[in-house]
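Consider the subject:
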Amino acid sequence: MTCKRGALIVLEGVDKAGKTPQCNKLVQALQDSGRQAEIRFPERTTKIGQLINSYLENKSNLEDHTVHLLFSANRWELVVYPR
């Protein structure tokens, strides 16, 4: 049995360039064409994700390096480790 591999699509751009709206449009277009698609990050439901969301909505003022580390931590906090 073979398994089809999915595609990872990355949109890159500077802060506040409109990446999120473009990602949302891309996901919707893929779903409308019958493909499975989802946006994974930032995961805004976690504590770190809420800090990121606050920054992205201009509700908090964080230093750029701090935000970079928060994005990294946001990915790592969702990694499932075997117990």
About this structure: The CA atoms of residues 13 and 19 lie 7 Å apart. The chain has a mean pLDDT of 86. The chain is about 45% helix and 0% strand. Residues 19-32 form the longest helix (14 residues).
